[in-house]
Automatic annotation (TrEMBL):
It comes from Marinicella sediminis. Pfam families: DUF6776. The lineage of its organism: Bacteria, Pseudomonadati, Pseudomonadota, Gammaproteobacteria, Lysobacterales. Residues 62-110 form a coiled coil. Keywords: Coiled coil, Membrane, Transmembrane, Transmembrane helix. This is DUF6776 family protein.
Length: 251
């Protein structure tokens, strides 16, 4: 009896790759994506933190700049105020200097007047017009009249003043009664001297030539005193020049 040996055929089973190996590329991509997400998230946090820190720094810098700007504006305002005060002070000093100069000139003229008055005290025997001058223009004309009498043992004299201004208008002579026309204060009363000042406005086209001054005492026993002055001699420019010249000679 024969024994039949079974026949087996050994074949190597075909090795199939695993699921992961089959899809390694996909898993690799997913892993890379996950890593990129994690890294990106933390990187974004760092960037945000960096931006937040930079923002805080910028805010601090901006506050410092705003504070500095405010301080500079205050400094500029203070300096502008100081400059304005200095300019006002300089302008005030210039005005004061001008006023002092004018006052000095006036005092020199007054001094020359008093010196002239004293120097002629022996020549002034009775009431007279000691000085007369005019200044300004036709719109506003000023007349200064100085009356004087003897300085020794003088008594008060009183009376009225008459002023007759002669001139030319369009080639024709004309006389203006200044006291009557302009309602001037015509009274005088003094012991040694008196200064009378008047302001008038001449008619348009009127050219003055002479001014007659009449002094009528209240004492009826005394005759009226009349003096006529050439206008060119009493005009202030010439009168002031003469007064300043006399004052400079006494310095």
């Amino acid at each position: 009896m024969t024994v039949k040996t079974p026949k087996y055929v050994l074949t190597q089973a075909e090795e199939k790759p695993s699921f992961i190996r089959q899809h390694w590329l996909l898993f690799s991509l997913l892993g890379l994506a996950a890593m990129a997400f994690v890294i990106g998230r933390y990187s974004n946090i760092d960037v945000l933190n960096a931006f937040k820190g930079q923002k805080e720094t910028w805010e601090e810098v901006n506050q410092e700049l705003a504070l500095t700007n405010e301080q500079q504006l205050k400094t500029i305002s203070r300096l502008q105020t100081e400059v304005k005060v200095k300019e006002q002070a300089i302008a005030e000093l210039q005005r004061n200097l001008m006023l002092l100069t004018e006052e000095k000139d006036t005092l020199r003229v007054d001094l020359a007047f008093y010196e002239n008055l004293l120097s002629h005290k022996d020549d002034i025997k009775s009431l007279r017009v000691f000085d007369l001058e005019a200044s300004g223009d036709t719109d506003m004309l000023s007349i200064k009249l100085v009356l004087a009498q003897k300085l020794q043992r003088a008594q008060v004299v009183e009376g009225v003043i008459g002023l007759q201004l002669t001139g030319i208008v369009e080639g024709q002579g004309q006389v203006l009664d200044l006291v009557d026309q302009f309602k001037l204060d015509d009274a005088y009363s003094f012991k040694y001297f008196q200064i009378k000042k008047y302001t008038i406005s001449l008619p348009k086209g009127f050219i003055p030539t002479t001014l007659l001054v009449e002094l009528q005492s209240n004492n009826k026993r005394q005759s009226a005193i009349t003096e006529t002055f050439d206008w060119s001699e009493i005009w202030r420019e010439k009168a002031l020049e003469q007064a300043l010249s006399a004052a400079s000679q006494t310095d």
